[in-house]
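Lab notebook: predicted structure, single chain.

Context: the supervisor wants predicted structures on file for every construct in the current expression panel, including those that have not yet been purified. This is the next one on the list. No modifications to the sequence; it matches the entry in the shared construct table.
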Amino acid sequence: WPHRHAKWDLELGASWTDTENSEEFVEWGRDYWDSILPYTAATFYTNEIMDENQDEITANYLSNHKRLLEVKNTYDPKNLFRLNANIRPEA
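Prediction complete. Output recorded below exactly as produced.
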């Protein structure tokens, strides 16, 4: 795990029942996260992955990404195991 040096693991959790305003609540969460990001290593624990895009996932694996991509290309080239902290195989 490339983030062993981190002193803290921050996680934002929220829930609501008012689905009419879901976009507003999700935006609040993203705005909050963006406000604390400058005080972090700007990385995340892969088990807490949500809707990060592939570029963020790639960056998060740091120096391990190249090796993990080779493993993915070898053993899961069709991306069967994708409901996880997914590394997409090269097409």
